[in-house]
Amino acid sequence: MGDLKRHKAMIHCIDVVWHDYPELGCEYKAKMKSSIKQHRAHVHDIDVTWHVCPEPNCSYKSEQKSKIKLHRADVHSIGVTWYTCTELGCEYKVKQEGHLKQHRVMVHDIDLLWWFCDSEGCEHRAKTNSHITTHKANKHKIGAPIVSTRRRRTAPSTSTSR
After folding, report:
1. Shared domain check, 59 and 34
2. In a domain, 159, yes or no
3. Contact (Cβ atoms closer than 8 angstroms) between residue 85 and residue 103
4. What pLDDT shows up at residue 144?
5. Which residue of 40, 77, 117, 161 is surrounded by the most CB atoms within 10 Å?
6. How far apart are the C-alpha atoms of 139 and 134, rounded to whole Å?
7. Calpha distance 137→80 (Å, rounded)
8. Tally of domains within the chain
9. pTM of this prediction?
10. What is the DSSP letter of 108?
11. Cα 17 from chain centroid (whole Å)
């Protein structure tokens, strides 16, 4: 199936070929055949290879073997790689590298991208888009999320101008 035809079918439901799940009592249908396989696994527990946590008294299981490794590190502290903050005086450490990156942005302003309110005359800025959405709802009574403009901070500044 070509990209345009796939887009039309998936996004706009134009010329869709529906795939039914032939199980009695199940009315599931999907636009892609691969979704039927996922449905069989997730809903009916058919053709699933479960990987289980080998730790005693733990009932965690996953379809992905890699998730067992993450689970064992997060829950049982087995095979943990600790990521520590290198900022002077900071003792923050975490098991997932992405959480360290988030910490460095939120706490130390490292690699920070500021989000700016795009309401007329407003100079408010925030570290996350969700904070801008909250600001706009509270201060401007704008309920629908609107994509804000974000800019990389070039140097520490107390100015809130764009």
Report:
1. no
2. no
3. yes
4. 56
5. 117
6. 8
7. 41
8. 4
9. 0.47
10. H
11. 30
74 and 91 assigned to the same domain:
no
- 22 and 33: one domain? yes
Query: Is residue 89 in some structural domain?
Result: yes
Residue 157 in any domain: the answer is: no
- Kindly state whether residues 126 and 139 are assigned to the same domain: yes
Percent with pLDDT over 90 in the chain: 40
* Domain limits for position 35: 3-44
- pLDDT score of 152 more than 50: no
Kindly tell me if the per-residue pLDDT of 24 is higher than 90: no
47 Cβ contact list (under 8 Å, min separation 6): 37, 40, 41
Please say whether the beta carbons of 28 and 46 come within 8 A.
no
User: What phi, psi does 55 have (nearest 5°)?
Assistant: -75, 140
Residue 160 resides in a domain: no
Total residue count of the chain as it appears in this document: 162
- What are the structure tokens assigned to 49, written together? 């290879």
